[in-house]
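Fig. S4 source data, part A: sequence.
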Amino acid sequence: MTLSKIRLLPLAGAALLPLAGCSSPAPSAAPTGSPTPSSTSSYYLEAEGWGTQYPLCADRPTSAESPIDIRRDSLVVDPNAAIDISYKPTAFSLENNGHTIEAIPDDPTANTVTVGGVTYDLVQFHFHASSEHLVDGAGFDAELHLVHKTTDGKTLVVGVFLNTGESNQELDELFSHIPTKVSETEETALSKPIDLARVVPLGTPRVQYTGSLTTPPCTEGAQWEVFLNPVTVSAKELSAFTAVYPDNHRPVQPLHGRQVTVDPNG
């Protein structure tokens, strides 16, 4: 496999491809300029201490943890980074699991991602505010994580940055029905299906790297596929989430020599 260096254009000038059937205009691709997580926030302090109970969460010379700061001037083009994202309208139920709001599909095989001949099924998606990954040291208002698994337990996560702007028609009902009570058994069923193909910015630049889950036990070996161009949610939609979880993003972790590759065409 031949890899070559690339220096991407600033995100604000990156081309955004319109999503089929979407009426909202293409969002700005610029980061919000949010700093790294505040060292005084309760979630930051909690995350810094995870390693005492969960060994993988502690930084070690061999750690391969997530999230990371994506540095565009060090990205390497991978000509074999093709991805096949097959999403369709699906019914979801919401759960407040104590660290985020999770959306669980009624049909766990309805939405798939195929990379390198391996197919992963979507098992849930959830949110972090502000974004967990950074781009050149700057964050976004929030980040959507779509978690997929194979039948033998391999994990792939698709990351999508969120900035405030136009409302998100596919996610509007979700944000208006966020459960405020933490429960491992109680779920809130949504009345309308969500078409995640209208949420993910398909056809825009996407980076890949090997990392981990961003909550304990910080299990490593997860394949990350992070789209660099954000999509929008309205301030009202985002505030419905941040009213429950105002700060639930893990600090960025050292790369420790890992390579981050990019597919400029998504």
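Fig. S4 source data, part B ends here. The domain at 34-263 is CATH 3.10.200.10 (Carbonic Anhydrase II).
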